[in-house]
Amino acid sequence: MRIFEPHIHMFSRVTDDYERMALAGVRAVLEPAFWLGQNRTTVGTFVDYFDTLIGWERFRAQQFGIHHFCTMALNPREANDDRVNQAVIEVLPRYLEKDGVLGVGEIGLDDQTKKEEHYFLAQLALAKKHDLPVLVHTPHRDKKKGFQRCIDLIRDAAFPYERVLLDHGNEETIKITRELGCVSGFSIYPFTKMDTNRMVAIVKEYGVERMVINSAADWGVSDPLMVPKTMVKLEQAGLRPALIEQLVWGNPVAFFSQGGRLDVARLEQPANIDRRQTFEGNSVLRGQDPDA
Amino acid sequence: MNVFDVQASLRALLPAERFLVFEELRTEVAAGGVKALQVVLPALPRKIGREQLPPELALEGDVSVDLGAWRACDAAALELLHVAQAGDDALRELYAHGDIEERAMVLRSLACRPVSAGTVALLGEVQRTNVQSHFEAAICDSNLVARSLGRAGFAQADLDRLVLKAAFLGIELVRLFDVHRHANPELSRMLQDLATEREAAGRAVWRDTARLIARAPTAGTLARLVGGLEHGDDGTRLAAAEGLDALLSRDRSQRDELHLYLRERLPREPRAEIRAALERALAR
Ligand SMILES: [Zn+2]
Hints:
Distance between the termini of chain A: 55 Å
Bound molecules: zinc ion
CATH architecture of chain A: Alpha-Beta Barrel
Number of helices of chain A: 10
CATH class of chain A: Alpha Beta
Oligomer: heterodimer
Largest sheet of chain A: 8 strands, parallel
């Protein structure tokens, strides 16, 4: 079964992870632009990071047959940092036109400040302008209130719910989101936050409609194989394979196709490095006789 | 510079509706210039397609390009760079902030543009890249490298380092049009050192080594060429035989000694193509 991993930060992972993910069935990854563990002090480091996401990181993924996509954004934490926040908003439009950029994200709230709200709204406007869905990071602290605040801001901005993925959800937030029409994301971690057993219980209660799961693996304690591991638990719990496939492939592909840039037919094959195929030189024209 | 007619090529290659998309983008970029191209370029592989053009050697002035290495989107990008009147600054900027496909398209376009300071700068970029598809897009399937030699910032040593990188990556010499004309003893030394290093590690040696070193021998060249005649790999033996033929065609001072080895190998050589090369060398 193929897997579309809809939230993982490969920038901070090693090639072994790509290899293990490919072996476990991961065909495509979506890497949201995020906070790198410490604040950046100039916009230039954001630009370099964005260029890495659409260039070098994509090349790394292709070497293992994995299609690499991303979402671009000013993340909520650095939305608080006046050295960079406005300047990043100004460079974003160009990156939001890149072909492998399938959404705006991670945006949302972290510490739930006024500045975070300001840049969240500014980026919802960018998403509308560039016709893209949004990947929303919800706070890990005071989650329920922050979750509700994100939803209020989205509603007030009249941003269509079906183009919103509210990520890092749990048993409490699913009660809020299931009626809204947005997609609920669950980040499965090895020790903290959401784990595989709780995820199985959520799927048993609510089904898989408008739901995606991810590892959100980054430079912290996390596991890039959390999606395949959760699939095994779901199967053992008796969930039909068709529903598992919907959860790990159909739903994320449908969500990120909304911007019109995801070429689903290309996902049928593993990614390959776009190099000219040569077979013992017979597809190559010689500039001239080498002995001339 | 009009190395090939992009519009005619795309019209022949693409379904009508996709060719129409190309024409619309062309109009958009003609009006909006480089700013418009920044938005249009990333979408070209998806909107125009990745089909290969049919193999054809395009020749114009001092340019030669194998169009079979080009995809529909590469050809479209060349045309759009032209109508946007993208100069060196634009080219470098599009490369610097381009995704993996955009960079490949920008690099491939160099083969059909006049050599400029921007060309030299981008050749420097690919000399340092680890993305092999980018190295190939710039270096292979045209005579760009040979054509750039002598420009400010691109001297013989720069060409040598690109060739060494091609050898390192195992790229066939025939894809580096005209480069063999610029063989020199320093490049031979570099290639022989690489070969020695690979042999010590038990790894394969670039087959085309013999073809280049034979054109500019240095210490150790003759022994490597003669030794290549006994190699277990057909490609390596063929390159050694062709290299010795090339060597004898320009320098007959060691003709008798070399003929001794060629005659010794000939009756035991199982491959007809290699026997023919040995016989050519023996006729020198
Ligand atoms: Zn994240």
